[in-house]
Design goal:
This protein is mostly helical. It is 78% helix and 0% strand. The protein has twelve helices and no strands. Helix 3 (42-70) runs antiparallel to helix 6 and helix 5 packs antiparallel against helix 6. It starts with a helix and ends in a 7-residue tail after the last helix.
C-alpha cells in the first residue's frame, strides 16, 4: 500500500506540474486523471488509459453538439449527461464518466467550445494517463514472494501426504488428534493457494511483453490436487482395517511426500503406482465383509491418487521447458 501511495502521489504531482508548464487551464484535472489511472498493475493502468482516451473523444463530440445547439448552459450539460452516460455504460466505460465529465465542465466554465478548449481538455487527460503509466513502469518484484509461497504450499502438501501415509498404515491414527491436524492442513493449504493465486495474477498483469501464466496454471494444478487430497482424507476416515495393500499404499504416499517438488515429473511415481495396481489385482480376493469394504476403499484411494499424480505429470509436460526462478 505504501508503494502504491507513493506512485499515485508522484503521478498526480508530475501531471499537475507538466500541465502548468504547458500553461494549460484547470491543471488539477490532470492530477485527478493520473490518480484514477495509476491502478495496481501495469495492464490495468494501460487499459484504463485507453478507456479515458476513447471516452474523452466520445464525450467531447457529444458535449460540443449539445452546447452548440442548446447554448453553453447547465441544461445543455444535463443533456450531454443524458446522452453520454448510457453510451459509456453500454461500452463498459462507466468508470470514465466522473473524470471525463469534469473535463467537459471546462467548456461550461469557459463559456466556449473553441478548439483550444478541446485541445486543453484532451492534453490534461493525456498528461494524466501518461504520468500514471510511467510511474507504473516500476513495480516491486513479486517473484521472490511467489517462490516463498510455492515452497510453503509444497511443505504443507508433504505434511498432508505423510499424515495420509501414517493413517493408511495404522488405522487407529485416523481417530487421533494428529489426523485432525492433517485435515485442518487442507484448509490451510487452500488459504495458501488463494494467496499464491492472487500474487500470480498480480505478476501476470504486470507482464507487458512476454506474458507467462506459468504460476497461474501451477496454482490451478495444485488446487485440483488439493481437492483430491480432501477427497482422499474423507475416504480414509472410513478405513478401519489394515491389510497388506494398506502397507503398499502407505509407502506410495510417503514416497510422494519425499519427492513432491515443483520440478518433479511425476512419471516415476505413476510407474510405481501402475505396478501397485498389478499387485493389487493379483492379490487374494477378500473373504470377509470388512476386507471387502477395505479393498473397495483402497481402490477408491488408488483412483484418486492416480489422478493426483497425473495432474502433476500433465503440468510438467506442458511446462517442461520453463526455467524456474529458484
Amino acid at each position: 500500500m505504501r508503494v502504491a501511495a507513493i506512485k499515485i502521489s508522484v503521478a498526480a504531482v508530475a501531471a499537475i506540474v507538466i500541465a502548468d508548464l504547458l500553461n494549460l487551464d484547470n491543471t488539477t484535472a490532470a492530477g485527478i486523471i493520473a490518480i484514477l489511472t495509476a491502478l495496481e498493475t501495469r495492464q490495468a493502468s494501460i487499459e484504463r488509459g485507453a478507456q479515458y482516451i476513447l471516452a474523452t473523444i466520445i464525450a467531447f463530440i457529444i458535449a460540443t453538439a449539445s452546447f452548440y445547439i442548446l447554448g453553453i448552459t447547465v441544461w445543455s450539460f444535463g443533456v450531454y449527461l443524458l446522452v453520454f452516460v448510457p453510451i459509456a455504460t453500454k461500452f463498459n466505460l462507466s468508470s470514465t464518466i466522473p473524470p471525463i465529465s469534469v473535463l467537459v465542465t471546462h467548456f461550461l466554465n469557459a463559456q466556449s467550445i473553441e478548439f483550444e478548449w478541446h485541445i486543453n481538455g484532451f492534453l490534461l487527460m493525456l498528461i494524466g494517463v501518461i504520468c500514471a503509466n510511467v510511474v507504473n513502469l516500476w513495480m516491486p518484484d513479486k517473484r521472490r514472494v511467489i517462490r516463498e509461497k510455492v515452497d510453503n504450499v509444497e511443505d504443507v502438501m508433504r505434511g498432508i501426504l505423510d499424515g495420509m501415509g501414517i493413517a493408511v498404515q495404522d488405522v487407529s491414527y485416523i481417530e487421533s488428534p494428529a489426523f485432525r491436524i492433517v485435515k485442518a492442513d487442507i484448509k490451510k493449504l487452500n488459504r495458501l493457494l488463494n494467496e499464491l493465486e492472487e500474487e500470480s495474477l498480480f505478476d501476470y498483469q504486470n507482464q507487458l511483453v512476454e506474458k507467462n501464466h506459468y504460476y497461474i496454471d501451477y496454482t490451478s494444478m495444485r488446487k485440483d490436487q488439493m481437492n483430491l487430497l480432501d477427497t482422499m482424507c474423507n475416504t480414509l476416515s472410513h478405513l478401519d482395517l489394515t491389510t497388506e495393500s494398506n502397507e503398499l499404499l502407505s509407502k506410495m504416499f510417503k514416497e510422494t511426500a519425499e519427492e513432491l517438488d515443483e520440478g518433479n515429473t511425476g512419471l516415476s511415481l505413476l510407474m510405481r503406482l501402475a505396478e501397485m495396481y498389478r499387485v493389487y489385482r493379483s492379490s487374494k480376493l477378500p473373504t470377509t465383509r470388512e476386507e471387502f469394504e477395505t479393498r473397495a476403499l483402497l481402490y477408491h484411494l488408488l483412483i484418486n491418487f492416480e489422478s493426483f499424480l497425473e495432474l502433476k505429470h500433465d503440468f510438467y509436460i506442458e511446462y517442461r521447458d520453463v526455467e524456474l526462478d529458484k
